Amino acid sequence: MPYMYILKCSDQTYYVGSTWDIERRLAQHERGEAANYTRNRRPVRLVHLEEYTRIDDAFRREKQVQNWGRRKREALIAGDEAALERLSRGGSRQARSPVDPGPR
After folding, report:
1. Taking the model in full, what pTM does it have?
2. Dihedral sign, CA of 78, 84, 86, 92?
3. 95 Cβ neighbours under 8 A, 6+ residues apart
4. How many CA within 13 A on the CB side of residue 16?
5. pLDDT 10s per residue in the chain (104 long)?
6. 49 φ, ψ to 5°?
7. pLDDT for position 92
8. Is residue 95 domain-resident?
9. Which residues contact 73 (CB under 8 A, 6 or more apart)?
10. What is the CA radius of gyration of the chain?
């Protein structure tokens, strides 16, 4: 079964991937044999998983989520549909905290 997955790395960043065999792929990430990105950010932890019937659908979803920012990925991981909708409409600027003034 094809999957799109999100890993949380030891440096608190996220890695988004797709695979046919999630258990094998997770083991590869843990051994540092999968992606260059995760190799030096181990250990990694699976935080989100979506199952598809076709690998091209899983790959398309991977590419979609890779283009998202951190807040939108975290809303997906949390299952927060309201935040996903708001962030999809560009509402992230309104949600910034005083500590994160955004680009200047």
Report:
1. 0.84
2. positive
3. 71, 86, 87
4. 20
5. 999 999 999 999 999 999 999 999 999 999 999 999 999 999 999 999 999 999 999 999 999 999 999 999 999 999 999 999 999 987 655 444 445 444 54
6. -145, 130
7. 52
8. no
9. 6, 14, 16, 65
10. 15
Q: What string of DSSP letters covers the chain?
A: --EEEEEE-TTS-EEEEEES-HHHHHHHHHHT-S-HHHHTS-S-EEEEEEE-SSHHHHHHHHHHHHTS-HHHHHHHHHT-HHHHHHHHTTGGGTT--TT-----
Q: Is residue 21 part of a domain?
A: yes
The reply to whether omega before 98 is within 30° of 0 (cis) is: no
The CATH number of residue 12's host domain is: 3.40.1440.10
99 lies in a domain?
Answer: no
> Which structure tokens are listed for 79?
């299952």
